[in-house]
Design a protein that fits this description.
Chain lengths: ~290, ~260
């Protein structure tokens, strides 16, 4: 396996955490949360802030998760308390976070090569697999709890949640906070992996997250019993792998954003048109 | 049991589209009674249910349940006493969850939800028994996601979920309107059975005069936010009921009743 492929697997594992986070809002709550574009670099900048201040890599990474949840709280407040539409709430949070991220360390790019990271002295891929496994197990356990099921039910049917005596807004808040926490964690992992935090590292990250979810759902369409977390992880890995193959075939890394968007378009088109073509073929076969 | 006192409700207040639905509306429901609510579209039936359940708030007046004013209680807080089955069979269930998961959520209604596992394996047999009373074979489909059920199966499940913790008041909001006549009949029979078994006070909106006569103890007709008929069942025939309705709504009929 060449270096590019190994890097794509490692990045795929980092983006898997991002995809699991966005699964909660995009897939479970049906909430297009744009704030993650700000939360991803925020996780990186929070990590940078604390690692530079002398905290351990693990503590700094966990702080990126916990403080990342606050981004979800801002979006929740804008959307539910101030009744601003969900898409705009996310965009406003993302805009606020741009300034917050610059304020955190006073600059837009911070080199982290001279600081320790969770990958020090270990194989990055092993560390990443352990983190992904922990996130997946915890999320799966959470979604099997009473609160977890109410989170799913909130995305499905708020009327039902209210009829159960619960305030559905509470579960939107929980979902947005966990989602943004995981995106912050993913940002912190990426900063350590690439050795720097950059203000633009969140640009179009929502496409990566949603693409991973769509790819995961498409390739695992027939495995109905598979959990959303597994689909997100598989989707992120395949998505990054396809991007790496494209680069390996000779496309420039600067083409990556366009490649990413084309992958999403192809998978969405496949989902839309494949059943139609299949139906047409079976109708023709029946007529023969 | 339920008293609605001096209630007023308008929509789009202060705009050209301001619509007054209720003005100083008074209404009383007796304990254990099943009241059929009839009336044309726009007469205020669903608004009345929305106000009782707390989904919308009236501008004036009080909603009193068993002597307690529940004006201040939000919709989810009123769910402790009030169950509701909607016209849309999907409105009372979580489609992406299985039958077992839906029933388990409903079993915890108005209790404290926490980080405990939702599914209690010791209760599965009890749920199977409850589902078997519906005669739809749902007891053998516990792990089926509700989105794969038919409208009738979904509505039966909604009905079961709305009544399983024995609400003090059950609101049936045209709950058979989206179903075919055969399924509609089946659901109405199950409704009657559940209401009688648990002695639940019920308000039932229907556009079907026959159903109203067959299943209600009292029949109320609304028109433009006012009660224009309030009779005990047996005091009026289907034909008389239709005549009253048509005299208020020229050219319209209860399709299923003719």
């Amino acid at each position: 396996m060449n270096t590019l492929m190994i890097a794509s697997i490692e990045q795929g594992l980092i983006f898997a955490v991002l995809a699991i986070g966005v699964t909660i809002t995009f897939k479970i709550l049906d909430f297009a949360d744009m704030s993650v574009e700000g939360t991803f670099p925020m996780g990186a900048f929070i990590f940078s802030k604390f690692i530079i201040a002398g905290a351990s890599p693990l503590t700094s990474t966990l702080l990126a998760f916990f403080l990342g949840t606050l981004a979800g709280l801002i979006t929740y407040t804008l959307n539910i308390k101030l009744k601003i539409k969900s898409l705009l709430s996310g965009i406003l949070t993302m805009t606020i976070l741009y300034s917050v991220n610059l304020r955190l360390n006073g600059k837009s790019n911070i080199g982290l090569f001279n600081y320790s990271s969770i990958f020090d002295g270990r194989e990055a891929v092993i560390v990443l697999i352990i983190i992904i496994a922990a996130v997946k197990i915890l999320m799966d356990m959470f979604l099997k709890t009473e609160v977890g099921y109410l989170l799913i039910a909130t995305g499905d049917n708020e009327t039902l949640v209210k009829s159960l005596g619960e305030n559905s807004n509470k579960y939107k808040m929980i979902g947005l906070m966990i989602s943004n926490g995981l995106v912050g964690l993913s940002g912190a992992m990426m900063a350590q992996y690439q050795g720097f935090a950059d203000i633009n590292m969140g640009m179009s990250i929502i496409v990566t997250a949603i693409a991973s979810i769509i790819v995961g759902d498409t390739i695992l369409k027939k495995s109905r019993k598979l959990k959303n977390t597994t689909r997100a992880i598989m989707g992120a890995l395949v998505y990054k792998f396809i991007g790496a193959v494209a680069i390996d075939l000779g496309l420039a890394p600067t083409d990556l954003k366009a490649i990413n968007a084309i992958i999403v378009i192809l998978f969405l088109s496949y989902n839309t048109f494949a059943p139609e073509i299949k139906n047409k073929k079976s109708t023709e076969a029946a007529q023969c | 049991m339920l008293d609605i006192k001096n209630m007023s409700k308008s929509f789009n207040i202060g705009t050209d589209n301001e619509t007054n639905i209720f003005t100083s509306f008074d209404f009383h429901i007796n304990k254990g009674e099943c009241t059929g609510i009839l009336g044309a579209n726009g007469c205020g039936k669903s608004t009345l249910f929305n106000i009782i359940s707390g989904a919308i708030i009236q501008e004036e007046g009080d909603i009193v349940l068993n002597g307690d004013n529940i004006n201040r209680l939000k919709e989810n807080e009123r769910a402790k006493f009030i169950g509701r089955v909607h016209q849309n069979p999907s409105a009372g269930v979580s489609p992406s969850l299985t039958i077992l998961e839906n029933i388990s959520l409903s079993d915890k209604k108005c209790q404290k939800f926490g980080l405990r596992k939702l599914i209690n394996k010791n209760k599965i047999n009890q749920y199977r028994e409850m589902l078997s009373t519906l005669d739809l074979g749902l007891e053998n489909k516990l792990d089926t996601e509700v989105k794969f059920l038919s409208g009738g199966q979904r509505q039966s499940l909604s009905l079961l979920m709305a009544t399983m913790n024995k609400p003090e008041l059950l609101l049936l909001d045209e709950h058979t309107a989206a179903l075919d006549p055969k399924t509609s009949r089946l659901i109405m029979e199950k409704t009657k059975e559940l209401i009688n078994t648990h002695s639940i006070t019920t308000m039932m909106i229907s556009h079907n005069v026959r159903d109203a006569i067959k299943y209600s103890d009292r029949i109320v007709m609304l028109d433009k936010g006012r009660v224009i008929l309030d009779v005990k069942n047996g005091c009026i025939t289907e034909k008389e009921l239709l005549n009253i309705y048509n005299s208020r709504n020229s050219g319209m009929m209860f399709q299923e009743a003719v």
